[in-house]
Amino acid sequence: MEIERKFTVKELPADLEQYPCLVIEQAYLNTDPVIRIRRQNDDYYLTYKGKGLLAREEYNLPLNKEAYEHLRTKADGNIISKKRYVIPAEGSLNIELDIFEEPFKPLVIAEVEFPDIETANAYVMPHWFLEDVTNNPAYHNSNLSKQ
Length: 147
Known about the structure:
By secondary structure, the protein is mostly beta strands. It has a single domain, classed as Hypothetical Protein Pfu-838710-001 (Beta Barrel). It has helices at about 65-70, 115-120, 140-145; strands at about 1-10, 20-30, 35-40, 45-50, 55, 60-65, 75-90, 95-100, 110-115, 130. A hairpin with a 2-residue loop joins strand 2 (about 20-30) and strand 3 (about 35-40). The two termini are about 25 Å apart.
């Protein structure tokens, strides 16, 4: 189960380069249900995501590079490229700050995953976040891929 909130960002942290960074490319084979392939640095995955905005089922299966490249040719819509910075937050939480490349640049989205819905609902966003867009499907990467 993935329990996640999404936020737009008004400013990037000044010390962003000190945090781990993942280079991500992802493409969608289907958007209802969501079936996604992802390259994350040198790792490859096939992901199934169930319905939902704040909480939904998510299953990741490993792929090899050849399978990823084969499936990539079958993707619908835009292929999404982004850099993800992993920033420690309160407790054991992490902020995953996604800085999108073209054609979505200058979009920046922060995601925070939670262990349970109560913790998600109690979360207070930091000052550099702008708006909670968790319940706005337009900010789901699967919907961005269709633009």
